[in-house]
Design a protein that fits this description.
The complex is a heterodimer of chains A (415) and B (200).
Chain A lengths: L2 H13 L1 H5 L14 E5 L3 H13 L4 E5 L5 E2 L5 H4 L9 E2 L2 H5 L3 E3 L5 E3 L4 E4 L2 E4 L2 E4 L3 E3 L22 H12 L5 E6 L9 H16 L4 E6 L8 H8 L5 E4 L4 E5 L4 E4 L4 E3 L2 E4 L3 E3 L1 H5 L10 E2 L13 E3 L4 E2 L7 H19 L10 E7 L5 E11 L2 E9 L5 H19 L1
Chain B lengths: L1 H19 L12 H11 L18 H12 L8 H11 L1 H10 L11 H10 L1 H7 L19 H12 L11 H8 L3 H13 L2
Helix pairs in contact in B: 3-4, 3-5, 4-5, 6-10, 8-9, 8-10
The chains are: A alpha/beta (415), B mainly alpha (200).
Chain lengths: 415, 200
Amino acid sequence: MKDPTRREFLWTSGLGLLAAGCAPTAADYAQKSGRRVVVIGGGWGGTTAAKYVRLADPSIEVVLLEPNKQFVSCPFSNLVLSGVRTIDSITFGYDRLRAHGVRVLHDTATAIEPDAKRVRVGNDSLPYDRLIVSPGVEFQWEQVEGLAAAQDRVLHAWKAGPQTVELARQLQAMPDGGVFVLTIPPAVYRCPPGPYERTCQVAWYLKNNKPKSKLIVLDANPNIISKTALFRAAWASYPNIEYRGSNKVVKVDPGTREVTTELGDKVKYDVLNLIPPQRAGTIAVSADLVGADKRWCEVNHLTYESVKHKNIHVIGDSTIGLPVPKSGNIANAMGKISALAVVSLLSDKPVPPMAPGNTCYSWVSDREAIAVVNAYKIEGGKVVQIEQKLTPGQSEMWAQNAVGWATSIWQDMLG
Amino acid sequence: MERDNVMPIVLISLLLLALTGTAGAGPLDGPGAPTAVICSACHGFAGQSQSNTMPILAGMASWYFKKAIQDFAAGKRTSPEMEPYAKQVVQFGLDDVAAYFAAQKRTVTPVTSDPAAIERGRAAAAQCTLCHGASGKGDPAKGVPDLTGQPPGYLKSQMLLFKADKRSPGDAQLKVVKALMATIPDEQLADLAAYWSSVR
């Protein structure tokens, strides 16, 4: 009926048969015959990169390493906290990537050997011609006293999944009159407007379900760092929000259910959502891809090749130095740009100059959203912002566009 | 029937391609492709939009694509989402990107509408055909675009923007369509969107 279905059929019935028969392991790919790209991380950047290498040149073998069997979207996950969406509606499998010929291995990269051009997976190793690393963020537990020992009880819900569901459950179970405390780390962190959208969703839920309850937001930053005026306007509908800027949380005590700020203030909570400070994903640190700050990875703005190691490209939230936010949309764009760059480099062709773009919606209630959009160009080999534009206000139309965006970009990554 | 005869050849060719590793001209070739892939986050791979709200760009006439981008970039067709991206497309080469999308094989939206709404829309569609033609395919000579096969949510939102004079306010060319929209109840706009979305 439709060409894509036929193509998909070919892959799954023919070349994809190996993958369908039994789950492959890293040992199955210990030898490579032709050109191979290995991708570490199956999030917004990694899935996109893996798919687009295959789309650009199906003769290149692509192996994607991702320990989780399912992808859960961080964008839209704040709506799970307010009960507006289910976790199932933002959870997807990796099967359609396999239909593009991507070898998806549900395993963890344990080390990178840049000189030998190999990725270690336990005792096995995967040789590559080019490596794309998209490891997301890891939390700096040590930055908040008492946090490392209380990881199982103090929720971040900043990587969508079981913690999102558990935080929603705690919010629902909180008695009316209870205090929900949300803490925001100092910039730079994943998804700048995310905590403020979360503030809207928790406040909306409390307003409609637990009107005597309060939401205290302890922000390490002096003010809202993204879509500031739009969030301020939205919060006018939520008198249950108590926002405190320049309130960095330095200590948590789950026993007494209280957090302590840098200023020495102690704040009691019934439910706590502590978003810890962040750095590049662990493999980026252990493979020496991070800079002197030991936190983030500097890259070439045209190819996303690491400035520290040849043939290794880093994309997504782990990168630093580009004038872009750490967003899913940016990671998706970096996935495509790095994929086309890698394909060009492997074919000894010039790398096409490409710039990312950023579209970022935030839900301010169950039905209204706001947005920010950033466009970029390349100037002197660097990514430079052309313009940033905000919606003039909040509306249901932007929310409908948000749904359209999510539908499209999830398909672009995983479909 | 000819189609059936062609299939084995297509299969063999594809398998040969896979086995020999030869990459032919694909949807990522051409000078506009590297810029156009950034559009796919919202508009779908090769402009084949999968959502209800984003228009399909694949197969879009290049004159219409270019006018839309120029109007967005100039802030004439107001959209906080599209204005920055339009400027980015202009920066990287509007002609190439327009040519890229025009060259993609047009598909129709995967979003389906209620058959009853489609029928109600069909009964009311004559008012659109005066300008867009009986087929709804438009008339490039007069700057009238193709309505068919686009997502119903996109068509409806554009009609509502016309009705509220929020799409390209002050554009003399759009006076007639805006006057017409003002006479149509919102529910009928939804029916018209369902109908034109279903036309192939």
